[in-house]
What does this fold into?
Amino acid sequence: MHPAPSIIFFTVFSGLGFGMLTFLGLGKPDVSGFTAFVFFAIAFALAVAGLAASAFHLGNPQRALKAFTQWRSSWLSREACLSVAALSVMAFYAIGVVRFDNRIPALGLIGAGLSLLTVFTTSMIYAQLKTVPRWNQWSTPALFLLYALTGGAFLTGQTSILNWLFPALTLMQIFAWVQGDKLFADSGTTLETATGLGHIGKVRLFEAPHTSGNYLTKEMVHVVGRKHVPILRVIGLLSLSVLPWAGLTLLPFNHVLALVTVLLHIIGAVTIRWLFFAQAEHTVGLYYGKR
Amino acid sequence: MTSLPEYTEKTLGLVIDLDTCVGCHACVTACKGWNTENYGAPLADTDAYGAEPVGSFLNRVHSYEVQPETGPAQLFHFPKSCLHCSDAPCVTVCPTGASYKRVEDGIVLVNESDCIGCGLCAWACPYGARELDQAEGVMKKCTLCLDRIYNENLPEEDRQPACVRTCPAGARHFGDLGDETSAVSQLVAERGGFDLMPEQGTKPVNKYLPPRPKDEQIDILAPLLAPIAEEPAGFLGWLDRTLEKL
It folds into this structure.
């Protein structure tokens, strides 16, 4: 699949934002006044910037409001509705904490739940697609939730829970890669089933329908950069979890270290999210003799 | 609502004969021509006369080589357009309700004035039947030429999809696949029509007819022309034996 920068930005940063909101909703850290304002401002900025980025790949963004109507059948519509619900509830909660020094735990709990549900619906946009076997597995929502929780815990300074989340995220990411590498073959979809000519013999594309590319080959048959997958996976994991975790555990804590490790974490998340798209193979690639 | 209908009154679709398709691409051109001038936004081309021309098409013809275990490879031309699936994944993923399946005839259609151009339906389609128009930013797909098949301003013989009407080889057929007595249903039963990617669970309406088996012996005189000598004789025989020894 085409790794569009707007979609990578959207999934990574809205995940971080809603992850932060989850912890803030649970009263972690228990802050108030200006400190709380800074925390909420960062969380809202990340979540809203991420959601806004997703609008950049729309052909007709002026009709985006219509995307709130089909929540009964569409994961994308559910995501739109839940993100607005989560942001609204958390906005009221934040006003209470920042302006009136009055934390309403029940409201925070609802906001935290809605924030996590939003991340879940984002992941289901991808996990629901049978056409992209690499995404069509339970570890996709598990991973998106772990990314949001880890990033959220990191940005809200929840170091004790990070000792659980870093290894969980790392192991789940490795599991998703190992599983994902086999899923296209396991799906049973081949050029033989795609053409129905498999009973005669081995099928091969003889001539493409046209000489140049098209929307489908650009959007769904992205093969550039796949050769660097092993090295990018190692760099991604080092930057995402191994180095930040080692830094936080082994080095004396200060704000520069925190900033550097957070940036490393985000660079790792963006790298791996790029791979999430670039490596994903769509069944339509079979018709074009590519995967 | 982008939920799929429980049932459709008719199940209109195409039957494509891989045995007779000659790969002329006339259906591609006829489709582009009709659908650029009629229902919805025109099928735009970008950089049409430049180095990298790209355009939206609702129907494309691939060509595949199939290599049997023995014998020469065989070549098949393979037209592909929307299969108007009964369990269409492109419909349920749509966030706006623009993508829907019609109850009256089962045609899967895009209401372009509701389409935000997110592209998720194209991702959900395993066949590559949907293309986002680069000029209008809306999703384009086969309409089964609903503006021809119900068009009373056209002569009766023209009330079929443009691709079917234009096919010079008679490789494309249009009709109600939900009606067992229809000509297309009988053709499918007779020839063993099949689904593309049945394992994807989309239950496509369009059916493909398999190529008829090739004749085993193409040249009927060949058996009568047995080689005179299996082993080389004379000078060639000597050369063969000498080279073997080296």
Summary: The two ends of chain A are 10 Å apart (CA to CA). The longest helix of chain A spans residues 159-187.
